[in-house]
Specification:
By secondary structure, the chain is of the alpha/beta class. The protein is built from eight helices and seven strands.
């Protein structure tokens, strides 16, 4: 695989899956714009890691729940690198609250960061890609929970279900412009968002037993899927989700 000469944005890119995606794309030669809202030191360190791979990276502080910030993120990318080829809508949060307990503020925050940011990130990236005339790749970081209920995490599941239809509908609309839109649906991944589970040996025992491959995914495994989708090997994929879940969706009830 080679992404030499390509330019990518990764939202929420300085930790967890986002960080792994940044490094996976950079390993294939892409230059990267790392979106972040916290921990600028982590962003600086990641820029240095990318530089060590022979590529360039810049960090841009932008709240992707705000359309103006997303536009500034796109503009900063074009100003720094002259183009945009790959947009990874990765930023996401969850509240771990049920339909009975979720507050209006919790609901709105999840939707703004998970779904609104992906919608307008897709829109603005697609406009830039179309203006360039060379197409591009938009990769939406979804979840097995775009299909699979997770009781006690309702707003998150709803946001990922919306991302499912964003990916499918935008993929159909943008296909004639050469812009591919694909979702990535991880299962359980060893990232900070799952710390409460990873810190509980009994929960980990139950989870590992439910996964046919017997373990959580590493962030690097999800980053590798994104790198594949960004490259020329995935030229006939659009308007769909690639699930990287260790087989859990087909073996266990919702967790």
């Amino acid at each position: 695989m080679s992404l030499h000469g390509k330019v990518a944005i990764v939202t929420g890119g300085n930790s967890g899956i986002g960080k792994a995606v940044v490094l996976a794309l950079a390993a294939q030669g892409a230059n990267i714009v790392i979106d972040y809202v916290a921990n600028p030191a982590a962003t600086d360190a990641l820029e240095q890691q990318v530089a060590g791979l022979g590529d360039r990276a810049i960090g841009v502080e932008a709240d992707v729940s705000k359309v103006a910030d997303l536009q500034r993120l796109i503009s900063a990318t074009v100003e720094a690198f002259g183009r945009l080829d790959i947009m990874v809508n990765n930023a996401g949060i969850e509240t771990r609250t049920s339909v009975l307990d979720t507050t209006e503020a919790q609901y709105e925050r999840v939707m703004e960061i998970n779904l609104k940011s992906a919608f307008f990130g897709t829109q603005l990236a697609a406009k830039q890609m179309i203006a360039q005339g060379s197409g591009g790749r938009i990769i939406n970081m979804s979840s097995v929970h775009e299909d699979w209920p997770m009781p006690g995490n309702t707003a998150y599941c709803l946001s990922k279900g919306g991302m499912r239809m964003l990916t499918r509908t935008a993929g159909v609309e943008l296909g004639p412009h050469g812009v591919h839109v694909v979702g990535v649906g991880p299962g359980a991944v060893a990232t900070p968002i799952n710390t409460s589970t990873m810190d509980d040996p009994q929960k980990m025992k139950v989870l590992d037993a439910a996964i046919p491959l017997g373990r959580m995914a590493t962030p690097e495994e999800i980053g590798a899927v994104v790198a594949f989708l960004a490259d020329e090997g995935a030229t006939y994929l659009t308007a769909t989700t690639i699930f990287a879940d260790g087989g859990i969706m087909h073996s266990s009830p919702g967790l």
